[in-house]
Every structure is written in C-alpha cells, then in structure tokens.
Amino acid sequence: MNEKFHNSIKKAGEEISLTNAERVQMRRTLHSYMEMKPLRTSASAPVMTFGWLFTMRPVAAVLVLAVFVSSAGVSYASENALPGDVLYPIKIRVNEPVKGALAVSASAKTAWAMDVAGERVKEAATLAAEGRLNTKTQDELQVDFERHARQATVAMEENASSSPEVSGEAAVRFEAQLTEYENVLAQIGAAKDVDVVVLTSSVKSERERVAAVRARAESRIASTGKDQAAAERMGIAARAHLDTSVRLARAVSKSLSASSAELVAAQLEDASSTISAGETFAEREAIPDARGAFRKAISATEKLGVFLQTSSDIHARTGLVVGEPRKSKPGKKNEGRDDSQAVRAAATMNVSATSSTTTPPVETDTNVDVRKRGGDEQGIQQETEDRDEKTLPVSVPVHLGL
C-alpha cells in the first residue's frame, strides 16, 4: 500500500504543471485560506508565506500540496472543483489517485471506481446547469466516466465467482446511481438546451452493462446457496445507506423547497418501511423475499442520494434551488419557496435504523423547479402555460421501485 501511495504521489508530481495564471490564483487561494484560518499565536510570531512552495521540485511541492488538500478548507474546495477550475487538477491527479491507492480490498477498489465514475457525470450535470459544458469538456468527462465505470464493472465480474453477494450488492448500488444520473443529465440538458445525448447514452450503456452483471451475480447467489448470506449483507447495507441518505437530506435541506423536502422525507420513510418488511421476511426465513426488499431499499436510497448530491452541488455553484412542484390547475401560480418551511420539513426526517413507520408511497411523478434565489436576471428562462419564470426543471425521483 505504501509503495502504491508513493507512486501515485510521484506520478502526480511529474504530471502536474500549473500555468503562471494558475500559480497566481493558487497563491490567492492559499492566502485567503490563511486569512480565514489564522494561526492562534502571539503577535510577535514570525509571519509565514507560501512563496517557497512554488520554487520546490515538483514531487516535493505535490507532497506539500497533499498536506493542504487534507486540510478542511482546501480539501473541500478541490473536492467540489469542476473542469476549468484552478483546483481541478489537484482533484483528479492527487485526491482521486491517492484515494484509489488507499483502496486495498476488491470491494473498496470497486466502490472507488464507482465514485469517480459518478463524479464525472455529476460534474457534467453541474457544468450544464452553469451553461458552460462545451463539447471538448463533455468528451473528456465521458472518456473518464467510461474508464472508471468499466473498471468497476470488471471488478464486480471478477469478484462474482468467489463472492457473488458482494458483487450483487455493488451492482445494485451502481445500477441505481447510473439510472438517476441518466435522468438528471437528460432533464438538465433539455432545460439548458445543452446536447448531452452522447453522454446520456454512454451512461445508459454502462447501466445496462451493470444490470447484466447484477443478474449474473444473483443467479450465482441462487445456484451456490448463498441466499442467506446475501440477504444478511444487503440488510446491513440497506440500513447503512438509509442512515447516510437521512444525514444527506438534512445537510442539503436548504437547497430544497418545502414540497420537495416533504417528498424526500416520505421516500425515506418508504425505504425504512421496506427494510422493516425485509427484516420480517428474514425472521420468517423467506430469504428471497427479504433479499428483494433490501435490494429495493438500497436502490431507492442510492437514487435519492444522487438527486440530493447533484441538487446540492448545483445550488452551491449557481445559487439555483429546488423550488415548489408545478401547480396542476391552470391559472394558479407557483408562490415561490420558503426556506424556513424547507428546513422544518427536513427536520422531520427522523428515520432511524429502528424506524418501522409506514408512509403511503407517493404514486405520482412530479417535476420540480430549480430556481434562482430572488428570481434575478441570471435565472434560466423556462416558459410555462400560466407563468413566465426562470426555472430549471429537474425530476425528483418519486418512483423509486418501492
């Protein structure tokens, strides 16, 4: 592991080359971080500057940058960087390779490849929402997405023979993620009049490839008598993913409208109820039914996670927020969003690992609007029958297969 880590840092040092403009921007970023997080020491302490950083040899400089990347402020900035941002090279040439080098087990490597593949699609969606996704950038993101998606798929295939329950769970998660990324891309591309057909088609192809891997893993589970082991693993995973989705929903509540927050809360309750049903099946030794319930819950929470993360990123970069669902009756207008209502709705998301409350599933597809705070002139024009507002419609995944 140490050798892989060292090689990743060394390779990054050989490849990274900042332009003069990027060096200036990097200095500004570091100095801004220093001002935001000053050292708590005496007034007579010597003042440190970062000029020496840019005179060091590449490998040494990258090692120092890796330290900064691990700090809270710079790490957050680089993790959320997009193509064209100053910190983006650090994200893809340092952060991601280091994480990959630290992923030792087969399942960890699969999860890492899935995360990187999803990140490329999320970056494309966010750039599209900003109106700066050009053909060159889209092609580059697509190539990197396909490379990591296939790396994840190959890892699942290789692990399917010895541990089909592990591969099966990973495939369920990845298939659900790609399904929602496909929907998000299509919706944002249409709203912003950006051609993302090729990238969307690529995501669809990889999703179908993963679905085939999942089917083979499930067949292998049944033929090797590993139903119970698979059900137990998926039950634990379903609870973990549910808890993660609850925390995420609370964290990004301000990027949702009150109605969207209520829909999210209802979907989380549905997922919790499905998990409870799976546990009941397991107690009755109806193992295939238990595994099916857990699989549905995992798929639901993964789709919801993609929606929440993408919405949050778009909100952070553009100020766009998920607005109220469109009114079905003609003549009535959307009254806008109320942040306090959204926060209160998100605060009701008290789903826990022991929750078994049943909420009636939402049965109607709903389109929601991502809108600019205050409706200023930088919003996105979207004509509707009863109003002329600046909106970016994005589908909340109401149908989660529950």
From TrEMBL:
Highest taxon of the lineage = Bacteria
Q: Using the UniProt annotation, give all residue ranges assigned to the region (Disordered).
A: 319-402
Positions of the DUF5667 domain: 81-173
Residue spans with biased composition (Basic and acidic residues)?
324-341
Give start-end positions of Low complexity composition bias. 350-367
Record's signal peptide: none
Please identify the protein, giving its name as recorded.
DUF5667 domain-containing protein
Name the species this protein comes from.
Answer: Candidatus Kaiserbacteria bacterium RIFCSPHIGHO2_02_FULL_55_20
UniProt lineage:
Bacteria, Candidatus Kaiseribacteriota
